[in-house]
Amino acid sequence: MELMQNVAKMQSSQFARSTETAEVAKQSVQPTHLQQAVTDAKEATQAKEATRKISSTDDMEQLIKELNHALDPFRTSLRFGYDDNFFVSVIETKTNKMIRRFPAEQAATILPKIQDLNGFLFDERG
After folding, report:
1. Higher model confidence: residue 38 or residue 109?
2. What is the CATH number of the domain that holds 98?
3. How far apart are CA 54 and CA 59, in angstroms?
4. Which strands sit side by side in the sheet containing 87-92, from one edge to the other?
5. Tens of pLDDT, residues 42-82
6. Domain containing 37: what range?
7. More confident residue, 34 or 97
8. How does DSSP classify residue 74?
9. CB 67 within 8 A of CB 107
């Protein structure tokens, strides 16, 4: 009889611990205010960049300049260029070989991602 009572006590304490663990897990999954602010800022940046239209040669030159500037900290032999059809090219500078080519609007969406990565990896304040 005493053995059964001990087993029952052990089972109830294990159940209580698993319930507490589940509650702690639920609380840690809910986003904090800081996480929400970061998410909101990223969504705002994405919405802003999604509406960016490249309609002139000046816009293309500015975009390419920003892309190459964002790529500088990585010290790669890759550079961005463009052609008359408003396509951006990724060029390997040692061989002058074009690696990839895509529309300027797609490049405009890539720019903030490169800048975010730069901030994450190389930001001195972080």
Report:
1. 109
2. 3.30.160.170
3. 6
4. 78-82, 87-92, 97-103
5. 666 655 545 567 888 999 999 999 999 999 988 899 999 99
6. 32-122
7. 97
8. G
9. yes
